[in-house]
Design a protein that fits this description.
By secondary structure, this protein is an all-alpha fold. Helices cover 68% and strands 2% of the residues. The protein has helices at residues 15-39, 44-59, 77-84, 86-104, 112-137, 142-171, 180-212, 218-222, and strands at residues 63-64, 71-72. Strands 1-2 form a two-stranded antiparallel sheet. The longest helix is centred in the last third of the chain and has 33 residues, at 180-212.
């Protein structure tokens, strides 16, 4: 069971598939750099550094879940997407994953492209695709922001886990027990529980930041109820 928890260790996926996802991850991160440069300003640049540092620190803390022998930690895609946007957010999470793999051996170096694809790219993208509509539908207050953060974080964790299932289907080399359907069910079940912890951490962090400095929350600045309407005192989080 321990092999099912993120991150992917060396040897679980074969070399050709790992290499293909390394190329994919590099191409996607290059796009993130190009698009993220448009978002960087005096507020976002230092915030990106803080977000990366926070995700790195919190990822070092594992919390146990109900399934025996499995613990989870923050993946950070939804948190980064809400605070610094999807492009810069994906870069923040990717930097954390690279440091963890090279310095702490958390996830195999050969599997880095797979881990970046799942956690930094798929996780962040899945979260932002929910953040955008939810912030337009829900009240723009702490409750609405907290619900948005919780739901997007929970879903992003499950979607990232399913990314691993797809990669294992393409090139799995280790017997994880059962068939692909059983593996998918196990991954979803385990990561739903991990996602609850992720959602609570994300919601608490984002709401806290928004209460103090709503202008530092990318999602509140960029995702407005109407494209031409600027955030008002009543529309922000207080």
């Amino acid at each position: 069971m321990e092999t099912l928890a993120m991150h992917i260790s060396n040897g679980i996926i074969n070399g050709p598939v790992a290499a293909a996802f390394a190329v994919l991850a590099l191409a996607a991160l290059t796009l993130c750099v190009l698009r993220g440069r448009r978002d960087l300003d005096d507020r976002l640049a230092p915030m990106a550094g803080l977000v990366a540092a926070f995700i790195f620190a919190v990822q070092m803390i594992n919390f146990p879940i109900l399934t025996a022998g499995v613990s989870g930690h923050l993946m950070g895609g939804a948190l980064a997407a809400m605070l610094v946007g999807p492009w810069v957010g994906a870069l923040c999470v990717a930097v954390v994953l690279v440091v963890q793999a090279l310095v702490f051996g958390d996830g195999g170096v050969a599997m880095l492209g797979l881990n970046i694809t799942n956690i930094a790219l798929i996780g962040t993208a899945a979260a932002y695709l929910l953040i955008a509509p939810l912030l337009r539908l829900l009240p723009r207050n702490p409750t609405g922001l907290g619900i948005t953060a919780f739901v997007s974080a929970l879903v992003s964790v499950v979607v990232a886990a399913l990314g691993f299932v797809g990669q294992y289907w393409l090139g799995g080399t280790t017997d994880l027990g059962g068939n692909l359907t059983g593996l998918a069910g196990t991954m979803v079940g385990v990561h739903l529980l991990i996602g609850i912890g992720e959602g609570l951490i994300t919601a608490t962090t984002v709401v806290t930041v928004a209460k103090v400095r709503p202008d530092m929350v990318y999602a509140l600045r960029r995702l407005r109820p109407h494209a031409t309407a600027a955030p008002s005192v009543t529309g922000g989080v207080r």
